[in-house]
Amino acid sequence: MKTTSKFTSGVFNPRIAFAVVLCFAGTSLAFLALAAPTPKKPLTSQVPNPGVSPVISRPLRDLPTINQLTTVQTEIGDTERRLVGRQTQNPLVHDTVTQTTAPTAGMPPVGVSYEGMNIDQGCGGCLPPDTDGAVGPNHYVQMVNTELAVFNKTTGTMISGPTPIKALWSSGECASRDDGDPIVIYDQLADRWLISQFVSSAAPSYAECIAVSTSPDPSGTYYAYEFDQSTSVFHDYPKIAVWPDAYYMTSNEFPSGQETNSGAGAFAFERAKMLSGQPARFIWFDESAIAVAAVAYVPGGQNPTNLDGKVPPPAGMPNYIVEVDTPPSTPDPQTSSVLVMWKFHVDWNNPANSTFGTGSTAPVAVGGGLYQANGGHPNFEIPIANFVPAQCVYGEGPNCVPEKVVAGVHTATLDTLGDRTMFRVTYRNFGDHESMIVHHTVVTAADAPNGATRTGLRWYEVRNLSTTPTIHQQSTFAPLDPTNPLWRWMGSAAMDHVGDIAIGYSASGPNYFPSIHYAGRLASDPLNDLTQGEAVMFAGLGIQGFPLNRWGDYSDLTVDPNDDCTFWYTQEYLPANGTTDLLPVNWHTRIGTFKFSQCVVNPPPLLTISSRKVHGSAGVFDLTLFDAQELCGPGPCPRQVEPRSGGTNGQFVIVFHFANPVLTCGTASSSHGTAANDPASGGNDCLVDLTGVPNAQYTTVTLTGVIDNHGNQGNVPGTFGVLLGDVDATGRVDGNDVSAVQSHTRQTLTNTNFRYDVDVTGRIDGNDVSITQGQTRTSLPTHP
Predict the structure, then answer these.
(1) Least confident of 68-72, 332-336, 556-560
(2) Which residues touch 211 (CB under 8 Å, ≥6 apart)?
(3) Which residues touch 349 (CB under 8 Å, ≥6 apart)?
(4) Dist. CA 572–CA 192, nearest whole Å
(5) By three-state DSSP, how is residue 78 classified?
(6) Choosing a second label site near 218 at 20 to 30 A (CA), which of 475, 493, 621, 697?
(7) 455-483 burial, b if ≥16 CB within 10 A, otherwise e?
């Protein structure tokens, strides 16, 4: 959570502010109030609920940057409010899936690496930075707290920003408040960018500010929406994900004036309308109604499921909302920890048909484009290996992260946020299976009898998502080096298009500055371990001392859409401490990449290329020009010649037939004439309409950017010759071709003789013989 209280007094003392905040937090956390929010009054059926209209921003690149604005010190260290029941620790529970050893040289090296925004650029004194970012085809977009920057992803040059997020809006609360908890995501399905932050004031309304780029250029203009949520419930720690039918969001619900959550919020925003700048509606399922006071269970710490890669989920598949729980704070009595999942189904044609879990109420229109309902019971509570939640909020708790001891500098421990799933929960459709990756921070078993516990990275791969989800593999990554014990936390996990898994995270210890690490496994590795070990993306240079315990609150690992292999990670670190007085705080951020060498990009496997012609009333006949099953010598395959007429305009239809269903045929081009994608493409076929193709020439047709439903992507070329009358496909027209046509005259056209109908009239007759005779001594050039 962030607020933007501005301290303009010359006598402001952040240490005093910290003491006041901590005192208030300690008092308010003494009770677990489960107050239900006050719902808006439903509209009557006669009142329309058309949706939220956006404003169109100026180009981001033209907006004032932080260096052009007057800034003041913001508050030092807000409290991240605790989630009810999620700090409970059972002394009899131990982590049984801890990985305590790992290879030291298995992970790939760091690729691109450059500085992101720092505290001076990011807010002028806020803590923590809320570092997140997303990679696109040409750019990397990073957000920290209240600022936004666009980088040339290859060079690291900042080409736009740092810009206050609120500058994208020209009216409303979103234009006047920079309250933080930002999220940026790249929507691969639409080649667009989404930027968001919340409004943390109830006057006039708590809100989520969401801007969607009007083009693939993240430094251009945006459709900027303000979705007013409630006047009585603050939606903290929002997390947003891309799904085909909506942008989904989760939040932790805090009734006004309350320091403990009453539940979680699950939202769906009308993605299709937002991409075109039209009025957009949104649906809120309030989960406070499913809290169980007797066991202090309150929904919270959730994430929506984010689609990674270009292969969408099966048509109509709902989004999954995910959290992790451990007894006794679970939705139903459990004997082990559980991964809890709700199906979120949205119906924009009739929002009242939307559902969340089982037994949810029907969403009703309450105005301002909002439909509101009570959430239902989770669809699945999947047993997982027991875990111990990491307790530490604002440096208080038994599981805070130690830092390297620096002489003369006040020491401190860092927050873990072990009461929630970490951003992002990612989903991939591999064609033959679907996978989801979930990650959170846990307490490890003691390193020795009566020894210390540390924090580690618990991760899961979930499969069978279209039926009954199951845990495919799980583990807690916590390798131990007795000379340099490390606490690992604040991670972000993702998977590349071949199924390799990686986690980026912070690592720190009593002998080690907080640093940026990454770890992973190959799809072919034995299950249940990050078998490739860990590597250092950037070694920290300093510590963050008392009273500045806040860290995170999240980080972001995304996958490059160009190759679907390269991981991009952004996280905070500290530079060298310049003074024993650590006020003001001085966090920096880093952006870096790595890629498993085994991950390669393959074009969709092609089976055949054919030329399609309509032979009058006899119908359509396809002439195979290429067959992947046919082995050819060093020269052209014998069937790489089209002997039929293209008419006066040299027109042909070329059919690329692939092994798997095609998601997009990309863009067609031709070495001769013009090429256009045929709208009849579909299934496993991509059709290309050619015009102006000359006779007696080889022509190469290329599909650029083909993607199939197994994640294969790339360019697919096909070369063939056009030689009118060359029915025996030798590359020249001679007496043999004339004799072959003559021998088939007056025959009914079939799949075995249609090639002799060179004028494509639907019958083989004297005209075909005459055309072939007229082409004798014509030949193709040397095969390219």
Answers:
(1) 68-72
(2) 54, 57, 168, 169, 194, 195, 196, 222, 223, 224, 225
(3) none
(4) 26
(5) coil
(6) 493
(7) bbbbbbbbbebeeebebebbbbbbbbeee
